[in-house]
Amino acid sequence: MMLVTSKATGHVGTSGPIDFTPVLREDAETPATMQMAMNVDISLEDAAAALWIVLRGGIELSALDNDRFTHEMVLETIFAEGGNAVAAARDEMNDQPAGSFEAHTAHALRSRVAALYGTGPAVAGQARQCRADRREVAR
User: Fold this and answer.
1) pTM higher than 0.85
2) Which domain of life is it from (predicted)?
3) Short-list 126, 28, 67, CA closest to 8
4) Shortest CA distance to 78 belongs to which of 31, 132, 12, 19?
5) How far, CA to CA in Å, does 106 sit from each of 29, 56, 68, 78, 98?
6) CB-based contact 139:127 (threshold 8 Å)
7) String of DSSP letters for 28-39
8) Mean pLDDT score of the chain
9) Please, what sign has the CA dihedral across residues 128, 72, 66, 95?
10) Angle of the 67-94 helix axis to the 44-56 helix axis, nearest 10
11) 97 versus 33: which is more confidently predicted?
12) CA 9 – CA 16 distance, rounded (Å)
């Protein structure tokens, strides 16, 4: 039987469309017959925790210098690992002893996420621009 690996397309922040391989379809023996779509609000810390999982899996920190790859890893990890694993990784990141290698790594991930996705909500009275369904909207 021919194995089929289909791609999913997601968006993280203002990344634009990012294709990634959803784990449940990787080398699937049956064809996909329907689609699923959802919008999930995540925090910057959630994105950093997803990348923490990626590093724990053996990817080098320097690999996250590639924007597209980093977007893919955030999408794929949250999809594959799920919210419980991301929440546990978030806690693990926060529990690292100050000054340790792991604490420095967590800081590097937070800095990388801030560089890609910003530093949080706009200050009251300031409009932030984002894209939603190909239309410019202000928050």
Assistant:
1) no
2) Bacteria
3) 28
4) 12
5) 38, 11, 20, 17, 10
6) yes
7) BSS---------
8) 83
9) positive
10) 90
11) 97
12) 10
| Three-state DSSP string of 45-99 | HHHHHHHHHHHHCCCCHHHHHCHHHHHHHHHHHHHHHHHHHHHHHHHHHHCCCCC
On the question of pLDDT at 137 being above 80, the answer is: no
Q: What is the DSSP letter of 25?
A: G
- What type of residue sits at position 36? M
DSSP 8-state assignment for residue 20? E
Please tell me the distance from the alpha carbon of residue 131 to that of residue 136, in angstroms, as a whole number: 5
Tokens at 39, concatenated: 């919008």
- Higher pLDDT among residues 27 and 52, named by residue: 52
Rounded to the nearest 10 degrees, what angle do helices 67-94 and 101-117 cross at? 130
Token pair for residue 40? Answer: 């999930």
